[in-house]
């Protein structure tokens, strides 16, 4: 993004080395993100081959066919999982940069717009990835077939060529990752929670204010007609909605009382209403993310109104 780079240069006449380092690190991760989404989008799975192999257990040719179909898919799943670890590191670097003293969160977001935009892009990627994963049952099917085949062959002492692809410990971690409804979001919210608990000297508000400010910016952009008419394409709308939902979920995981309480700095009613004004096919995944991946929605402190909105 040449324009982004110019924008970045323009923001800091002399960007400090630390800022440039973070920007470059995150930039590399975001560049890879497009490819990851494209691969996930075209992930069709080996359902057919697996079914035939299971129905004809004595037909060795079909067993081999299924195995050969599944192996490259598992290599992809391993790449996605390894990418989630890099994404986690990128998020940590951004959180450090956007919460470091002496500035208040709002000042950070204004001073470091290039970094704030990257933070938004990470959230956009995360929710896009999880929406695709949620609607693709082949992923867990393929992976569990792969694991069953390996353990069966271990019993029969057959070594498979692709054995070195994914060792047992890696396979366990991948299983946990793909068992999540929204694996990338879970990775990010764990990372944010961990960031807050490791930085004892940093007031937790600095992190949550950074998140609630971003949620507010997105909500205002979505509900104000003057802004809305500037969104030339639906992609910008979607980007804004995904970022808003992403920061709400992170806020809800990190903040002691969460995003839904009366004292929350996020106007949840406003945010949900904005989403519900959109065509349902474009927001159903986002509403589900709010329903199923937040922490405090079902707390007693959540108002009945908000719960009714998400029914």
TrEMBL record:
UniProt record, GO biological process: regulation of actin filament polymerization
Top-level taxonomic group: Eukaryota
Keyword Transmembrane recorded: no
Subcellular location: Membrane
Keyword Lipoprotein attached: yes
Secretion signal span: none
InterPro entries: CYRI, CYRIA/CYRIB_Rac1-bd
Any GO molecular function: small GTPase binding
Topology of this chain in the membrane: Lipid-anchor
Single GO cellular component term: membrane
Family to which this protein belongs: Belongs to the CYRI family.
Protein name: Family with sequence similarity 49 member A, like
Species in which this protein is naturally found: Cyprinus carpio carpio
